[in-house]
Amino acid sequence: MRDSYMLDDPEFIAWQRGKRLDPTDRSAWWGGWHDVVHEAVARGVIVRRARIVSEPISDYVRYEYDGTFTNIVAGEFVRWLPRRQTTDLALPGADFWVFDEVQALFHHFTGEGQLDVDGREYTDDPARVKLCADAFEAVWGRAIPHEEYQPR
Fold this sequence. Notes:
The chain contains five helices and six strands; from the N terminus they run αααβαββββαβ. The chain has helices at residues 10-16, 26-29, 32-42, 59-74, 126-142, and strands at 48-53, 77-82, 95-99, 103-109, 115-123, 144-145.
């Protein structure tokens, strides 16, 4: 849900300098996360990612957008929702993942966009997991599929 993360990431810096991933050179960008997603999808798991973004989008979000094809090749479904379309939605205050509607993982970042020292918080609390699952479904229902989203 942030407009930037880890601005000192070497891949982001290289992107700022003009480096672009070549979709045909899978060995140059396929990594551990792609393996995890691909294997989960092969087992029948549906992996969805929704990104809430301010518009016009930041350079970091443009970097994410440019690399999203890698998520899709791995098997993720990705959608984008302009932040202006979320003002009537109740959303957790931190980025989160929901797993099988029984566990949530919150990511806590510093003001500079770095993952905090204790930045991963798992919960099995049914009320908190339901809050996240409901929020995600509300966002997903409004969000624009990656192949249709035109960032501005």
